[in-house]
Amino acid sequence: MQHFRQIDRASGNTGVGTGAFARPVEQSSTAVSFAKLLAWWRLRSRSRGPFLRVPSCPLWLKNLTPAGLLIVIALTSACRIDMHVQPRQNPLSYSDFYADHRSARPPVEGTVARGQLHEDTYFYTGKIGDNPGNVMPFAVTKEVLERGQERYNIYCAPCHSRLGDGNGFVPSRGFARKPPSFHIVRLQKAPLGYFFDVMSNGFGIMPDYASQIPPRDRWNIVAYIRALQLSQNATKADVPTGQAFPSEPPQFRGQPGSGATLPVIETDAASKAEEKK
Predict the structure, then answer these.
(1) CB hemisphere CA count around 91 (13 angstroms)
(2) Residue 230: which residues within 8 A CB-CB, separation 6 or more?
(3) Which contacts qualify for 128-133: CB closer than 8 Å, 24 or more apart?
(4) Which residues pair with residue 7 across a beta bridge?
(5) Do the beta carbons of residue 125 and residue 201 sit within 8 Å?
(6) pLDDT tens-digit map of 208-226
(7) Higher pLDDT, 7 or 132
(8) Burial 241-275 (b: 16+ CB within 10 A, else e)
(9) Residue 23 DSSP label
(10) DSSP-based three-state secondary structure for 180
(11) Domain boundaries, the chain
(12) For a tag site, which of 57, 109, 191, 255 has the least CB within 10 Å?
C-alpha cells in the first residue's frame, strides 16, 4: 500500500496516510515552513522543468543563521535512542537470570589471561616442586645488581635498612617487631628462592609485595640481598688477586656532601687519562 504526504497549499497543513484517509502529522512552525518550502519547490519544478533552473531561496531561508540551520536539521531528522536504552547490567549488579543472582560471571575454569600463562614455574614461584630453589633464573650482571639495589632501597630498606641488618627507619620508630638481619647464619644459608617466596607471599607481619614489585624485580632484589650478605661477611680470601685489602678510601672533591647534595669522588690521574681518551 502506497503512503504519501498531502499538503494543503492554503493553510500549509500536512497529512500522511493512504488514499483519502490521511492522518495529520505533528505540526510545528518548522514542519509547516518545511512543508511550504517543499510545495513551493514542486510548483517551481513543474513550471520551469526539474533541474533546469535553480529557484531563488525564500526570504526566511536567506536570513537563517548557522545556529538556526542546525536546529532545523535536528528537528527534521530522525531521533532514536534504542541503543541507549537497551537492556544491560551494571558491573557486579544483582541479576534474576542466573541462579547465583550475580550478573558478573566467573571465568571458565582453566582460563588464562593473555600474558599470564606463567609457563616458567620457577621464575614465578621461586620453588622447585615444594622446596625453594637456590639458583637465579637469569644471569646476574652489574645492571641486575644496580636495579636490585634501587628496588631494595625503595621497598625493603625502610624496615631492613640499607645494610640489611634490620635497623631500618620503621623499626626505629616503634614497629611492633624488628625484622631479622640478613646476616645471621640462618638467612645466609637460606636458598635464593626463599627470599623470592617471602617477597611474593609475605611472612609473619611482613605483607606480600607481589602487586608492587614485578617478578623480575623481585629476583633482582634477591641478587642484591645476596650481594649485601657477601659485602658484610667477606673475608680476605674473597678479595680478587691484585686488589688492595682493605681498599683505598675514596677521596672527595671539596666537601663530602650533605643530606641535600651528593659527594663528588676525586678521580686519580689514571682515571683522568682514561676520560680524556
Answers:
(1) 0
(2) 238
(3) 128/193, 131/193, 132/190, 132/191, 132/192, 132/193, 132/194, 132/196, 132/197, 133/191, 133/192, 133/193
(4) 14
(5) no
(6) 999 999 999 999 999 999 9
(7) 132
(8) eeeeeeeeeeeeeeeeeeeeeeeeeeeeeeeeeee
(9) E
(10) coil
(11) 4-76, 121-235
(12) 109
What length does the chain have?
A: 277
Q: What would the DSSP string read from start to end of 65-133?
A: -HHHHHHHHHHHS----GGGSS----TT-B-SSSTT-BSSPPPPTT---TT-----HHHHH-EETTEE-
Let me know if domain 121-235 sits in CATH 1.10.10.10. Answer: no
The answer, yes or no, to whether the previous bond of 246 is cis (omega within 30 of 0) is yes
How many other C-beta atoms lie within 10 A of the C-beta of residue 35? 21
Query: Comparing 80 with 128, which gets the higher pLDDT?
Result: 128
* Contact by Cβ (8 Å): 220, 196: no
Interhelix angle for 142-155 vs 215-232, to 10°?
90
Verdict on whether the full-model pTM lies above 0.70? no
Rounded CA-CA distance 96/102 in Å is: 8
Tell me: the pLDDT tens digits for 132-179? Answer: 999 999 999 999 999 999 999 999 999 999 999 999 999 988 887 899
- 173: which 3 cell numbers? 620508630
Please provide the distance, in angstroms rounded to a whole number, between the alpha carbons at the two ends of the chain.
95
User: Is residue 15's pLDDT more than 70?
Assistant: no
Beta strands of the chain (E only): which ranges?
Answer: 4-7, 14-18, 21-24, 127-128, 131-132
